[in-house]
Amino acid sequence: AAAAAQDEWADTDAGTRGGYLREVAKHLDDREEELTETLVREEGKTRTEASGEVGRAIDIFYYYAERAMDYNGENKNPTSGNQNLYYVREPMGVAGLVTPWNYPIAIPSWKMAPALATGNTVAIKPAQATPNTVRMLFEAFDEADLPDGVANFVTGSGSEVGEAIVTHDEVDCVSFTGSRQVGDTIYEQATDDHKRIQTELGSKNPTLVMPSADVAEAASTVGGAAFGVT
Predict the structure, then answer these.
(1) Sequence spans of domains, the chain
(2) pLDDT reported for residue 84
(3) Distance (Å, rounded) from C-alpha 13 to C-alpha 136?
(4) Are 203 and 131 in contact (CB under 8 A)?
(5) Is residue 85 over pLDDT 90?
(6) Does domain 2-70+92-204 have CATH number 3.40.50.880?
(7) 8 A C-beta contact, residue 124 and residue 153
(8) How far apart are CA 116 and CA 12, in angstroms?
(9) CA distance readout (Å), 61 to 54, 92, 124, 177, 209
């Protein structure tokens, strides 16, 4: 379905694509409390954390609704008077997305919104532990009248459904967030088929604390980022 819908979606005016994303954001905003409650029950976040994540997802769709127009192309000043330079960004095609359980609405939004804004269609497999939050996100797509096949939602195990997405002939690029072990496997599978791939693995990063910083606050912030909600 994503492949069948891709050409027409890519040819859709960028302002129209942005309009769909804006409607998605509005519908998510209208159901913010319900989404927060679902996230609390399904994943176990505190209400404060869940509300913050839902708010982030809403902001992401509003942001890319406005940015959709930025990807049309741009004129460049030529080096001589006899040239006219213009470049256009073109969609990659079908984006296969595999997302984790720890941010079950923010990360899918983070991956889907820019892909859709730039004319790609998507097929997403959320974590098995947290499918309902993503299901509600797709209800917002339906309420916004997003064309059929532009966004697709499949559930199942990573070893079966995830692998099927990553290795499918009609998937042009892959984005994965999860463990290093699984990410390495996905990277090999995708690159064997010459797909473009982006992975976010582990998310443990060094932190530089300057002498002028509040060390106690830095330790609390880094500890929370490293061990919270994982």
Answers:
(1) 2-70+92-204
(2) 76
(3) 26
(4) no
(5) no
(6) no
(7) yes
(8) 11
(9) 11, 20, 16, 19, 33
- Is the per-residue pLDDT at 78 higher than 90? no
Structure tokens at 83: 């040239």
71 vs 27, 116, 162, 212, CA distance in Å?
25, 12, 29, 41
Cβ(27)–Cβ(136) under 8 Å?
no
Q: Return the closest-CA partner of residue 122 out of 140, 98, 142, 95.
A: 95
Helix (H/G/I), strand (E/B), else coil: 136: helix
206: buried, middle or exposed (CB in 10 Å: 19+, 13-18, 0-12)? exposed
The CB density around residue 37, as the number of other CB atoms within 10 Å, is 15
Write the burial class of residue 67 (CB in 10 Å: 0-12 exposed, 13-18 middle, 19+ buried): middle
Closest C-alpha to 204, from 185, 187, 184, 228: 228
pLDDT tens sequence across 20-35: 999 999 999 999 999 9
| Strands of 66-215, DSSP E | 74-76, 85-87, 94-98, 121-125, 151-153, 173-178, 196-201
Q: Which residue has the tokens 């980022």?
A: 225
Closest by CA to 93, choosing from 144, 183, 169, 25, is 169
Share of the chain above pLDDT 70, in %: 96
Structure tokens at 46: 């505190």
> Locate tokens 């097929």: which residue?
123
Cα–Cα distance for residue pair 105/112, rounded to 1 Å: 10
CA distances from 84 to 81, 138, 162 (A): 8, 43, 45
